[in-house]
Amino acid sequence: MIDLSVKDLVKSFDADTNLLDGVSFDIQAGERVGLLGRNGAGKTTLFKILTGELDYNTGEVRFAPGRKVGLISQIPHYPAGYTVEDVLRTAFRELANIQSKMRRLEEQMAAQPDKALLAEYDALSTRFQTGGGYETDMQTDKICNGLGIPAAQRQQDFDSLSGGEKTRVNLARLLLEKTDILLLDEPTNHLDMHAVEWLEGYIEKFRGTVLTISHDRYFLDRVVTRIIELHDGKAEFYSGNYSFYVQEKQARFDLQLKQYEKEQAKLGQLGFTLERMKGWGINNRTLYRRAMSIQHRMERIEKTDRPTQEKTLRARFAQRDFFGDEVLSVKGLGKAYDGRTLFSDVELQVAGGERIALLGDNGTGKSTFLKLLLGEEAGAGRVKFGPTVKWAYLPQIIHFAHPERTLLDTMLYEKNCSVQTARDRLGAYLFEGEDVFKTVSSLSGGEQSRLRLCMLMDEKINLLVLDEPTSFLDIRYKLELLTILKRMVREEHLAVLMSLHELDLAARVSDTVVCVAGDRIDRVGPPSEIFTPDYIAALYRMEPGKYDPCFDSLEFVPGGAR
């Protein structure tokens, strides 16, 4: 049975180009499908169309009758003042409405018994019971325990949570809705390994259909069995997980390039013969007819487009003179919230050109730690920067003061540069042509991250602080960004301090790893000492040996290597 059918879907935000240009696909009941595409390809837009949040120009979207659809959004938003419990309870709105009607009927029947009211009450009671109305507390506790949402946290304001904690709560809300079709938009963003492990187990046991956008290749490898890629507004299909997709995509590229070169060689040969025949056939009708026959033959040859490689980032930061070895020194750093100690007595030194990765479970205070270093929050201890140090900071959640402005206007207003300079800098981060006239609010999460990085580009810095910089970037951009950082560390003596949840990327780019656990900095060392299966399992409270295959494939970056 087909759970979801999309046929010839077209969606545009302007008159000139279609973001989705005739997308068609079917998803069978029970399938686990990954939706891929570069940042801005239309993945989140497609999800919003599927849930009815966005309209579309033409085409058809059909769900199997009676199937309930649930979405976890890329960046969750709820009204101010909502507690975690309030967010979780939004999963039971329908049941709450039924219960409210039952209470009103009870009051009416107590005042004046009536058979019609009794019949209506009986029908509502049956719906409430079959919908799990008497099990909501038990189900909420079960899901919260699985995702590591403690009882005390359920009373906190949702807005006070870290990015990872918000993602967990929003994911719990979706799972409580008991949907038949799960639409997951970057479900592992900001999640630690323990929560990702639990989510993978949940999806494995889930009886419904799953369509997920993800830039986590290990998650895709373990969860999905088919890939749909959005490319140039169309859907392309791969019958396997992410690893299969990578190999098959390269094989298709090689085959298309070979076919293109073969056709071009044949056309070149025929073209040469055609020109000679035309020259000889000026006074010879037979040769002229033969030339026309060759020309018709060339026109009938089916042309293969030359395959193109995706453009790469060309990022650089303006260079700043740096004198001395010490970039940052931390002594006795500590932070506590409402009697709860996040960490205390932290000692840390950062040298010029050093790459430091900050690891730890959600809620252990990694983002807070970075904010303390930069003076954005107050805490105990002392932070001292080198006399010539200038830093730049990319936060976990990107905000723009004027999201209604275009990308070009944003650069012009905030960086005070010429139009040509703004376009050159935007182009280095793959915002080219008409893209620069998009509004900031229309960008995907990954595109907003790229734009913010672009705005840091001309800063003369020697310390770059990044809070989960790859969360919304697609897989290719993640690797490119980290390659650029490694190059800048080597060539420009740039120091980098970043929090990451993706262990393979942390191992590849860092030469020092700082692990936050409990109320302390648990361990500091090179990747070769930190990234052992036993220690990582303990750090993230996972089953020992669970991720051994993942670590076997890592290329470790020795401490001090550049």
What features would you describe in this structure?
With 562 residues, the protein is α/β, with parallel strands linked by helices. Helix content is 41%, strand content 21%. It is built from 19 helices and 18 strands. The strands form four sheets. Strands 5-6-7-3-8-9 form a six-stranded mixed beta sheet, with helices on both faces. Helix 7 links the parallel strand 6 and strand 7. Helix 3 (93-111) runs antiparallel to helix 4, helix 5 (136-147) runs antiparallel to helix 6 (163-176) and helix 12 packs across helix 13. The two termini are 54 Å apart.
Write the layout of secondary structure elements.
Layout (H helix, E strand, L loop, with lengths): L1 E10 L8 E9 L3 E5 L6 H8 L7 E6 L5 E4 L11 H6 L3 H19 L3 H16 L5 H12 L15 H14 L4 E5 L7 H13 L3 E5 L3 H7 L2 E6 L2 E5 L3 H39 L4 H16 L25 E12 L2 E12 L3 E6 L5 H8 L6 E6 L5 E4 L12 H9 L3 H10 L16 H12 L6 E5 L7 H18 L2 E5 L3 H7 L2 E6 L2 E6 L1 H4 L2 H7 L8 H5 L10
Parallel strand pairs: 3-7, 3-8, 5-6, 6-7, 12-16, 12-17, 14-15, 15-16
Antiparallel strand pairs: 1-2, 1-4, 8-9, 10-11, 10-13, 17-18
